Amino acid sequence: MLLVTIGVTVTVVALAALLWKVPQTERDSVRQLRRETEEVSSRLWLLLRARQARLELLAGRVRGRSAAAADALLVESVGAEREFQALYLLASDGRVQAAALADVLQLRDTDLVQADLSANALFRAAQQRHSVVWSGTYRSALSGLNTVGVALRLASNQVLVGEIAQAELLRTLQSAAGRHAASIWVVDQAGEVMADTDDSRHVGKINLYNWPVLQGVRDGATVQTEASLLGRELQLVATRAPSLGWLVVGNVPSGWGHPLIRELVFNVVAAFVGCLSIGLLMAPFWARRMGQDLRDIVARAALTTSGQAQGRSWPRGSVDEFNTLSADLEQVAATLQEREQKFLAIFNATPVPMVVTDVANALRIVDANDAYCAAVRIRREDAIGRNGLELGLFSAEGFATLPDFRQSDSLAGAIDLRRADGQVLRAHVFGRRARLEDADWMVWAVIDTGPMHALEAELCALNEQLEARVERRTQALSASNAQLTQTVAQLQVAQDELVRSDKLAALGALVAGVAHELNTPLGNGVMAVSAMADAAARFEAGMAGGLRRADLHQLLEGVAQGVDIAQRNLRRTADLVQSFKQVAVDQTSAQRRSFELAEVVHEMVVSLRPSLHRTAYRIVVDVPATGLRLDSYPGALGQTIGNLIQNAVLHGFDGRSHGTVTLTGLRDADGRIRLRVQDDGAGIAPENIDRVFEPFMTTRQGRGGSGLGLHISRNAVQSLLGGQLLVQSAPGQGTAFTLVLPDVAPRAEGDGGGVAGAPWERV
């Protein structure tokens, strides 16, 4: 385990180091390469610019001189400074006018004069530009060697050309790069490697012309890319040397080819092997050291399990983790011992007799609580290790009658046990099997059923007595029920009579009011007719003495006046009689018809006004004449309106000398018709507001109030008209009853336009 731990740890650390360090190494290497490439490019340009400056200085000296003088200057320059392998002056047509070669070349300068170099690419490039032109590598037409050329056009269209040997260019590059620089290539315009810092191993072997990324590098810019060249994966950093037109390309291997990465991997592997070797050497020692502490803890745990650890402490060692384990096991052992003692205390304190037997050992007793020992009159130490047959609790025949507990996990049944004192214990036993890893026990609970049997006998006797009492009580209740049924029937008859009496009283009051109202127009009519009779008698008496025009005119005026008075009073009488007939018919029948709400309201107000004629109470109607048409029962609606108005007069204006009842009709947004009957009376007390529609609810008990008016009205509105009757009131602020009615009332059972049921029968 120690070796595995060391191996896993070192592996994880090594992988983490590699995963972190390898990319970082590659990034650092690329940054270093970029810096070195840019520095080499700058240094190379500075070194070559010195040669370019000398060429420009020489061009100024040969300008305007003769061919011989120019040739002398060229020879002097090549021999003195030796920075150019060859110098030659070309005429505008490309012919050599003067030339000078280094001593290492086995050619004479005079052999080159008049040579035609018009086809030379460097000459053509210089002819097209007024500045210095640098070429790539090419084979010199004069020396036959690979050279790098630099040319400058003079004012006379002559071109001065200087050639630098490729070996000289390599020395210049190495001087610019220094001793510890990375691999640097100098690439010409054609993509050919002209020089490198790797001993010219790549000169002429690599062409980067087909790399668009490198061709697109501008002066002073730097790009980075990856490439697979000569079988190697390389990181390339390229920058264009200013004014030269060349690329300076730095390269470094990537991945496993990078020397720093190989060195890093080697170091990691070496560290891994070293750590593993050290672990192998130390593992046996530490295993023995830690194993001894662990063996001591295991031995102490075994003693605790067998119950032989009294007085022995748990071992402690030098390893903190093992000490923690030992302390935890000590705590666990103490907790288990405490729980065992608690269980034994609960087991012995249980009032139910309980015993534990061993199924595999002929049900011999493993343990028994105090209640069991007291129930069978034996001691615990005498019972443990023996079964019920050996203790004499039951005979061999009784033991044989026990069910086969080996086939079941739970048993229950009645049994008679013989106590140690010879008494019989009638009991009901319950058994539940407990299978442990090394034991198969049956836990029994013994319930003494002797008191229960005695109680059952008492309950049977009490049950017989109770049945007799119930029979007697049932007979008494049957007699009381018959009396109550008869009383309810009598009350129903009385209620019907009260409803009928209330209707008759309302109709009688209506008749009395109408009769009183008819008395005035009929009296006026009788007086008008009597006056006409007197006028006729006087006219007849006057006929004996002769008639005059004035007498006849007086008679006609009296008759016309009397007829007019009689007609007006008779029409008034006819209107009252017609209203009374309509109200009477509607109130005594359930005739369904179509009508305007204003019609029923007007008829009821007309019929009620006589009864209010000599009082200061007023009825104000605000119901539109049209637009509130109903297909309903005008009788029920009229009776409801009359009951609400009379209720306001009797209860709202009780003890007051004046009052106003306002009837307001309108149509709700949902199409239903709303009729509001509001008075400015005393209002309804809060404790009575929820009981106003209950039958026989009245505050005028003994003063003419039956308490059925609002009850009848609500039943008529809900059951016959299909609407709602709502009430709002506050003491001292009056009462408002609101009828919410549908346009078309629901069809009553047997509704055929004739007389309906009992609530509206004729009286």
Describe this structure in words.
With 763 residues, this protein is α+β, with helices and mostly antiparallel strands. The protein folds into 5 domains: 2-257, PAS domain (Beta-Lactamase, 2-Layer Sandwich); 281-347, no CATH class; 350-448, PAS domain (Beta-Lactamase); 453-549; 588-760, Heat Shock Protein 90 (2-Layer Sandwich). It has 16 helices and 22 strands. Strands 2-1-5-4-3 form a 5-stranded antiparallel sheet, sandwiched between helices. The protein has a 5-stranded antiparallel sheet with strand order 7-6-10-9-8. Strand 19 and strand 20 (673-679) form a beta hairpin. Helix 14 (597-608) packs across helix 15 and helix 15 runs antiparallel to helix 16 (709-720). The longest helix has 94 residues, at 450-543.
Observed structural traits:
five-stranded antiparallel sheet, 16 helices, single chain, 763 residues, alpha+beta, Beta-Lactamase, 5 domains, 49% helix
The residue ranges in which pLDDT falls below 50 over 5 or more consecutive positions are 753-763
CATH class of the largest domain: Alpha Beta
**Helix share, percent:** 40-55%
Largest sheet: 5 strands, antiparallel
Rough outline:
flat
| Biggest sheet: strand arrangement | 2-1-5-4-3
User: Got a strand count?
Assistant: 22
CATH evolutionary superfamily of the largest domain: PAS domain
Quick check: average pLDDT?
Answer: 77
| Number of separate domains | 5
Portion of residues in beta strands equals: 15-25%
Quickly give the structural class: alpha+beta
* CATH architecture identity of the largest domain: 2-Layer Sandwich
Gap between N and C termini: 113 Å
Number of helices: 16
What is the CATH topology of the largest domain? Beta-Lactamase
Radius of gyration: 68 Å
